[in-house]
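For the sake of transparency, this paper describes our internal protein records without simplification. Such a record has a labelled line for the sequence and another for the backbone structure tokens. Nothing more is needed to write down the fold, since each code stands for a local backbone conformation. For reference, a complete record is included directly beneath this paragraph.
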Amino acid sequence: MAETEIISNSENNDQFFEGVEKLIEIWFTPEKNADLRKITRQQWDNVLKIVGCEIISFTQSDQVDAYVLSESSMFVSRRRWILKTCGRTTPLRCVRAVLALATDAGHARVHNVFYSRREFARPHAQRTPHDNFDSEVELLDSFFGDGRAYIMGPEKDCWYLYTLLPLEGTVDALEKEQHGGSAWEGEPDQTIEILMSDLDPDVMDIFTRAASATAAEATKVSGIDKLIPGMVIDDYLFDPCGYSMNGVAKHGVYMTIHITPEAACSYVSFESNAPVRSYDALLSRVLRTFRPGRFVVTVFASGSAPAAAAPAPAAPPDYGARDAQNCRFAGYSLHYALYAKFPS
């Protein structure tokens, strides 16, 4: 979202910025007195230099520290680290440094890993290893051993996932012995991510300095402040355009939104771990707010989470499903769907 990235990525003199994010989430095994929040701001600054971004703003709740970055966001809780970065950043290059810092903070063992992203608009413009999924998987395996890689959806709109979780029915005897059957289970965990493209131009105009004097104004005019009530919002409006926000609430609940409003590459991502049984109402509010032409929605839920027993999010009005898949991993369910708006 930084202006320098827009200029350096421009081709044919168009204003292009890669809004699609790379999302890495690492859960560590609980250890007495271990806490990732012991890691200092200076240590995080050094980590993010490897990635190619920096901290802009900070807020926190009782259980999570939330950082707005020059390219998206980072969340740190007692045993979970989330980094979500866009543009030409290289988040996987910092994983080794994060694992070392986690060890110093008392977390010596990784419990699980999730790395995911949608297909880039311009994949060949990415820096290694993010220029192709095979390279990303190879690097992740060098850190975590033999993970699992999945690709869902059609080629140009596909969604990539890497995790240590095996699909149900594929856990062999060795894995059962190593993980004790229920070892993948932990505290209730669920996340919805909505990745939107071809956004309504009138909505995108809100997230420019020409239309909004402040980030708070853009947040209120767009209705972002009403998506999940009770959030403490930390927002930022870039110059000349672009928007990022983190919201935090009690019990470790968060949401984050990132907006690339340029007409040639409009993109919005929404993510939250709000512990509701069904995400239908939230999905509907997000779509009414941003009015995308196309979007991918994913819902992850562990077996003990409220959303675990819920059906896949309902097909929204005015949209048709281009692809949908439901998967059951050891301890988690995943709903994935790609939607496109019906022609008017």
In short: The first strand starts at residue 22 and ends at 28. The chain has eight helices and 16 strands.
